[in-house]
Amino acid sequence: MGSLQPADAAFLEPWTMPLHTSRPVQRQVSTASSGTRLSTSLALPAVLGIVTGVVRQRGLRVSRERRRPHLIRALKESDEPMLSGVKGPLNLVKEGEVEGLPWWWEAFWALPFTARGKVGEPLCLGDTMHIFRTNIEQIFGGEKSYDGAPLATGDLASAGLTDGTMYLGLQKYQEGFGDVYKLCFGPKSFMVVSDPQILKHILREKVFNYDKGVLGEVLEDVMGKGLIPADFETWKVRRRAIVPGFHQKWLNFQVSEFGRAGELLVSTLKEAASAGKTIDMEERFGSVALDIIGKSVFNYEFGSVEGESPIVKAAIQSLREVEHRAQTPFQYWKLPLTDLLIERQRDFNQNMTLLNDALNKCIEQALADRKEADLEELENRDYEKMDNPSLLRFLVDMRGEATSGKQLRDDMITFLIAGHETTASALTWSLFELAQNPELMKRLQKEVDTVMGDRVRPTYEDIKEMELLRLCLAESLRMYPEPPLLIRRALDEDTLPAGATGAETQVLRGMDFFVSIYNLHRDEKYWPNPNTYDPDRFKRKYTNPAIPGWAGYDPDGWKSQLYPNEIASDYAFIPFGAGPRKCVGDVFAMLEGCVSLAMVVRNFDFSFAAPTADPSQVGTCTGATIHTKNGLWMQVRERVAAKH
Ligand code: HEM
Fold it and tell me: Which atom of ligand 1 sits closest to the CA of residue 473?
């Protein structure tokens, strides 16, 4: 599911060949068994291959300039134990070991095409090359780190890219290197950050200096100019048009729609319960989330809770492929003839055609029925009486919005991708944790029984009253953030605040970032007992005087909101991102999750069943979200209290 396949890895090999070095003694180039190195995007010209040729597989390296010498010492003394969960070879550099740079090094950087771009200009090849240069000089030339960040070199396996656990690999590195470090695959690097003050800086204060970088390039083929990969110009226009679509009255109406979908889910679970069949709850939550997003966003009935159709299969498989691509920075699918040669590429194209046809029909219909109206009129529509109460209809009808069919398609597919797996995963992990905490489950069922009374579907007001329900979802988003990593690229030079790391970090133009929400949400500095599922933690105030500049978590900070947010936690809890590019569907998702979870726990008791009879067999693996590895198989029993 979504992880880099050996066949894909083979495409990377030419970029990792050693082409030239100044040193007579050569280390062996890595073989498949020692992990395959990650290359940069296809856009880099062959000459960078020559430059990268001086870099060979070295395992984990330690730069000279370190901000956490005690940790590095610990790593040197104990060799691997701190990183024992990280797969792949991890060899530490010996004291004073510097390979040196080739004789032509300085002359090469005087060539015109290596020149860096100027402030305010678009990024250019020279910017990317300059990052390579500083990394190579740091690793092989023993130069001072330009940015001040500790440097770790990695391979696909140790970073978890080969088995879909990259976020876990990055957490292991965090244990060794702290909340800011540079992960190098050959000369290609990602700055990995998880400090709340740095995240606030990147996501909010300097948001327009950080675009979606690699992710934008990878998703562009599928999402076009949808909000997630969109350039800032397009994004500003579309975000302004889309946000009002999620207005209160529409969300209120959606709550009853979520209930309708929930009823279908409950009836399929009842069948399983009475037949004594086990059921994969991850698949069930995925189906209900797909049906909900199709209906509410573009008025399409996928009907996936009731059965699988070719379009459901196409939707699910294309979403899987998008996830796969999002994790595969080498854009092999852009190579000539891959459409013909690679089966998954052919399947993907067929699936996308099917999905696009369905979306385009919805868009054509909405455009044909267009009734232009002002924002106020749109917000006061009686959605109960409309044939098409979807978000698409809102966007089409908005007066003065000159939206093309192509832009609408891009918006719709973006919603489909952004809103499907994320909500399904939040539900999956909530149930996974609740099923292991019977006391908590009982408390939750009691809350739901009491608040919902005789109502079969919860209302918006019910959800506001069911605090524990909302906290259960929030806590699962803390432990299993969707997505666990955000991707960014610096457009101009910048200085990151020190936060808890003790030193500022210099950012070069073109530097790629992994913003690790997972590392942040599982960090003991901000969340005591971070690996314990404890929804009540959000009711307790928490400060940590050891972290200068972090205001702590304050439950009063989100009183009028549905969920504890980045403001209440001073950016230590960012389940929906933060700043201007924060999730537009956050409230929608919380409401959807609450309705589905409330209806499910109200009606059923759950216990783990084969092949995941033991919770440890559930496993994790990532695409854009954290999935289970083997499904969440459960025995479902109807609750006596729920018979109504
Ligand atoms: C539990 C469910 C969800 C979670 C955890 C979630 C999480 C996120 C996060 C973390 C981001 C920020 C990405 C970044 O900064 O790179 C984001 C963006 C986005 N999300 Fe969600 N999301 C969820 C559900 C939804 C739903 C239901 C929709 C649509 C109906 C949606 C639509 C979007 C869009 C369009 C963006 C891009 C916003 C922009 O760049 O302006 N999401 N989401």
Answer: 1
How many residues belong to the chain? 644
Q: Can you tell me which atom of ligand 1 is nearest the CA of 580?
A: 41
The 3-state secondary structure of 42-70, one letter per residue: CCCCHHHHHHHCCCCCCCCCCCCCCCCHH
Q: Is the pTM of this model over 0.70?
A: yes
Q: Is 225 in the pocket of ligand 1 (CB under 6 A)?
A: no
Residues 414, 418, 420, CA angle at the centre, nearest 5°? 115
The ligand 1 atom at the shortest distance from the C-alpha of residue 215 is 16
Pocket perturbation via mutation, ligand 1, pick of 412, 583, 597, 626 by most ligand atoms within 8 A of CB: 583
Angle at 548 between CA 546 and CA 549, to 5 degrees: 140
d(CA 563, CA 264): 27
pLDDT tens digit sequence for 258-278 = 999 999 999 999 999 999 999
Q: Is the CB of 423 under 6 A from ligand 1?
A: yes
> Where does CATH 1.10.630.10 sit in the chain?
238-482+551-642
Residue 348 in tokens: 């993907």
**Helical residues (DSSP H) of 306-437, grouped into ranges:** 310-326, 338-341, 343-368, 375-379, 391-397, 405-434
CA–CA distance from 200 to each of 76, 554, 580 (Å)?
A: 33, 17, 11
Cα 541 to ligand 1 centroid, rounded to whole Å: 27
The answer to whether the CB of 631 is under 6 A from ligand 1 is no
Quickly state the pLDDT bin for 433 (edges 50, 70, 90): very high
Asked if the 238-482+551-642 domain carries CATH number 1.10.630.10, the reply is yes
Q: How far apart are CA 619 and CA 606, in angstroms?
A: 18
Q: The tokens 């080969």 sit on which residue?
A: 162
Q: Which of 583, 608, 520, 510 is nearest to 119 (CA)?
A: 510
CA-wise closest residue to 530 among 542, 522, 541, 520: 522
Looking at 369-511, list the stretches that DSSP marks H as alpha helix, in order from N- to C-terminal side: 375-379, 391-397, 405-434, 438-452, 460-465, 467-479
Distance CA 286, CA 292 (A): 10
* pLDDT, tens digit, 9 for 90 and up, residues 293-321: 999 999 998 988 888 777 888 878 887 78
